Amino acid sequence: MGEAIKILPALPQGNFAGADAFTPHRRPWARRRKAQRLENGRIMRSVSSKTTQPVKESQIVRQILDYLAAERIFAFRLNTSATQIGTRFFRAHSLGPGTADIFSIRRSSGGYFHPLWIEVKTAKGKQSREQELFQKYVESNGHTYILARDVEQVKGVLESAREGLNQKRRLVEWLLG
Predict the structure, then answer these.
(1) What are the residue ranges spanned by the domains of the chain?
(2) Per-residue pLDDT for 74 more than 80?
(3) Span 24-176: which CATH code?
(4) To 10 degrees, the CA torsion angle through 11, 81, 152, 30?
(5) Does position 48 have pLDDT exceeding 70, yes or no?
(6) pLDDT over 60 at 123, yes or no
(7) Residues with Cβ within 8 Å of residue 126, at least 6 apart in sequence
(8) Burial class (CB in 10 A: 0-12, 13-18, 19+), 40
(9) Whether the predicted pLDDT of 155 surpasses 80
């Protein structure tokens, strides 16, 4: 009963998940998660014991940002918004139409930084024409582009990049040693 309660200062809230990832809602180990399970080939989010709903694109984006933050990879979401004024709709894009949902920078071989663009789609989602053009553009510039339907695809690409880096290091050591 005589235990002291330590009150922590409020942390600044940011719209990024980077190497420091200090916002508590961005740390996957600090968030409660609803159980997920694979059912009929689709990832389902358990809402209650009786009903299930397909996972939304925004939930997949959140999972990927949480994973990248846990791996200490700098990443942030590129937002798109729309508003209606009268009968007209206006859209605002971070970098123009077709831009990927997440931009990340990862360290590649030789200590250089390599851009990684992640477009998130649900199981039934399809890329728009602008998104396909954006993918071709960034890939022609040597960037990595992932069309991710779940966080496992991003994990697979990053793991294969790490394996490739380790193979290059072993080859250099063998050549020099």
Answers:
(1) 24-176
(2) yes
(3) 3.40.1350.10
(4) 20
(5) no
(6) yes
(7) none
(8) exposed
(9) yes
